[in-house]
RING-type E3 ubiquitin transferase
Amino acid sequence: MAPGGNIYQDVAESRAALADYGVKSANVEGRNGPRLCGSAGGRPGMASNSAVHELLECPVCLNVMCPPIHQCPNGHTICVVCKSKVQNSCPICRQELGNIRCLALEKVAESIELPCKYHFYGCLDILAYHSRMRHEENCKYRGYNCPYAGAECLVTGDISFIVAHLKADHNVDMHDGYSFNHRYVKPNPHEIENATWMLTIFNCFGYQFCLHFEAFHLGTAPVYMAFLRFMGDENDANKFSYSLEVGGNGRKLKWQGIPRSIRDSHKSVRDSLDGLIITRNIALFFSGGDRQELKLKVSGRIWKEQS
C-alpha cells in the first residue's frame, strides 16, 4: 500500500485496472466454489483479525496471500501466483513489480492463523500458514475443473455451475436416466488426431455422470475409447458401477467398471485405459458397409452398488 494510502481505495483501484490486463478480479472458482465437504487439518472457528486479513488480501485473486509476497516500489502487494498474470506490472499504479519481497507482510502472514481460502463456501478450518497451503490442495470445498476434453477449458466451480457451463458454453447434450444408447458417426475413420468426441451428461440418482468417447493413438495403433466419469469426489464415485457395450455383425464387446471422479484429469483416466477400448479394425468391422465410415452404437447402464 502506498504511503498515506487507503487499503480499500487501493483494492478498488486495482480491480478497475485489472481489465487492462484481461484479468478478472475474482476467479470463477471463487464465485462458484463447491459447497459439499468436510475437511481436516485445522480447527473450526473465527480467525484472529479481519483487518489484518484484508491487508493480506491479494487485489487480483482476492485470496489471502501467503509468502512469498511481492510488492511494487510504491508498496502495493500481490501474491506470487498473480504476479505473472499482470505481466509483472502493479495493477494499482502500473509500477514494475520486479522481485521485491514484502518481508514485513510475510512475517505477519506466517505469525497468524488464516481461514482456508474456500471458507466462503463452507470450510470452517482456521490454519497456520505452514499447514494452510497443504490443506487447500486437498480441501473438498475447492472447485472442480471443467471435464470437457475437447478444449483447454480453465473454468472451475461447483457441480451445478460446471453442469450449466457445459450446457451453455460447450453445447453438451444432457440426458436423464440410468441407461443410454448413443451412436457415434465419423465420415473419415482414419483421422485420429483431434478426433475427440465428447461429452454427454447423465442425470442419474441425483448425480451427474460424463460419458466420454474419443479416438487416440495407443502406441502406434489407433484406438477408440469410451469411459464414464462421476461429477463429484471419489468416495461418492465408488458407490456406483457402470457397463458399456458396443457391437455389430453379431459380435459384441463389453466393459464393466467404476466411474472415475472428475477430480482425476481426463488425460489420466484415458492414459490408464480404464474404459472400453476398441481398435480401429474392430470398430470398422462393427460399422459394417465398406469400412469407409465409422458408425458405432455404444449402449450402457449405471447402477448404484448396495452398501
